[in-house]
Amino acid sequence: MSSAETGGVRACKQTFPPCFLFLLALTDLLKRAAPTSAETVSYGHPQRLRYTLDNDLLTPEQRLFYEENGFLLIRNLVSKQDIDRFRGEFERICRQEIKVPGLVVMRDVAIAKSEFVPDQRAVSKVQDFQEDPELFRYCSLPKILKYVECFIGPNIMAMHTMLINKPPDAGKKTSRHPMHQDLHYFPFRPVDRIVCAWTAMETVNRQNGCLVVLPGSHKGTLQEHDYPEWEGGVNKMYHGVRDYDPEHPRVHLEMEKGDTVFFHPLLIHGSGMNQTQGFRKAISCHYASGDCYYIDVKGTTQENIEKEVKEIIVRRHAVGDELTFKDTWAIRGRLVQGERISM
Q1: DSSP assignment string, 249-270
Q2: Nearest to 207 by CA among 259, 276, 108
Q3: Does residue 33 fall inside a structural domain?
Q4: Closest Cα partner for 209 from 235, 183, 184, 191?
Q5: How far apart are CA 90 and CA 299, in angstroms?
Q6: Residues of the domain holding 257
Q7: Is residue 259 domain-resident?
C-alpha cells in the first residue's frame, strides 16, 4: 500500500470508526463485482468478499486492497536465515553437488553452450523442486501458510515451485519476462482458490528487473498467450499475453530481502531486464486449495501450453501420449496443510 493510500486510511480513521469505513468500501466492491470466467465458482454468502476469506490475520484494509488490486505485499516476512539457507541449496544444485529427482534446470537463451560452467552463472531458474527437502521447506513455512490460508482456505496444495536467478542481461534483452497470467499454465480451477507467494531473496528493484503488475487486471478473464515477437529471442515457456492495454496503470514492486508478495493467478505481471552485473534471486510457490479440480483445456486458449508441455515431457522422459496435462500437475502437487481432496 502506498504512502498516499496509507495516509488516506489514517485520515478516514480520524472521522469514522474502522468498521464503518470497511462496510462502506465493502458495499462499493460488491456493487462492482463481476465474474472472471464461466469456470469460476462462487463461494460463500453475498456479503462476503470474493478474493479473500474471513479470518483474523488480514486487516480490513489489506483485504480490500487485495480485492481491488489482486496482490498484497508483506514486508520482512521470511527471515534472512531462511533465505540464506535457500541460496546455499540453490548453489549446491548449480555446482551439481546434489541431484534432485524431477528438478528442471533452465538457462537463459542468450547463454551459449560454450559458456557453460557448473555454477549459478549458467542457471536462470530451477523449478519443480518439490523433491528437495531444503528448498521445499519454503513452501511449508508457517509464516507463509498463514497468509496463503487467507486466500485459498485451510486445505493447501503446493503445485508449482521455482527459484528464479535472473541473470545480468547479455545485451539481447532476453532477461525480460513478458507480461502474462499464471493461470495460463494451470489446468485446475476455481481460479479464486489459487495464489502465488513470491519472496525476494535480495534487494529487488527496477534496475535488476523487479516484478511489474497491472493492478486490478485479476478481475478480467484469462487471455490468449503465446511467445512475443522480441528481438534477441525469448526463453522457453515464457509465454506472454497477446493483447493487453499498454496504457493500463502499472506498479513496479520494489522489495527487500524477505519481502513477500501474494498475488492472484489472473493478475497480469512480468519483469524487466536485469541491467546490473549481479543475479536477481527470488523463490516462489503457487498454491491451490485441496478441493480444486482439474479441467480439460482442449479447445481453449491454454491448448498451446498443453501441447508444449507434453512435447517436453515425452522428449525428456521417453513416455507416450498416455500422459495427460493433468497428470503432469498431479505428479508435482504436494499437500502441505489440511486434506488433499480432489487434486
Answers
A1: --EEE-B-TT-EEEE-TT--EE
A2: 276
A3: no
A4: 235
A5: 38
A6: 72-337
A7: yes
Encode 142-158: b = buried (16+ Cβ within 10 Å), e = exposed. eebbebbbbbbbebbbb
Percentage of residues of the chain with pLDDT beyond 90: 60
Query: Residue 270 maps to which CATH number?
Result: 2.60.120.620
Q: Are strands 280-289 and 225-226 parallel, antiparallel or unpaired?
A: unpaired
pLDDT given at position 12: 38
Q: Which residue has the cell 528437495?
A: 132
N- to C-terminal Cα distance for the chain? 34
Find, among 288, 277, 280, 296, the residue nearest to 334 by Cα.
Answer: 288
Nearest alpha carbon to residue 149 among 289, 1, 45, 260 = 289
Q: Helices 325-332 and 303-317, interaxial angle, to 10°?
A: 70
Mean of the pLDDT values across residues 46-55? 82
Query: Helical H runs in the chain?
Result: 3-13, 18-32, 60-69, 80-94, 133-136, 142-152, 303-317, 325-332
Assess if residue 38 is contained within a domain.
no
Coil vs helix vs strand at 218: helix
| Mean per-residue pLDDT, 210-221 | 97
Cβ distance 174 to 239 under 8 Å?
no
Of the candidates 192, 187, 223, the one whose C-alpha atom is nearest the C-alpha of residue 296 is 187
pLDDT band at 110 (very low <50, low <70, confident <90, very high): low
Three-state DSSP at 310 gives helix
Q: Is 313 exposed, middle or buried (0-12, 13-18, 19+ CB in 10 A)?
A: middle
Closest CA to 179 of 249, 108, 269, 275: 269
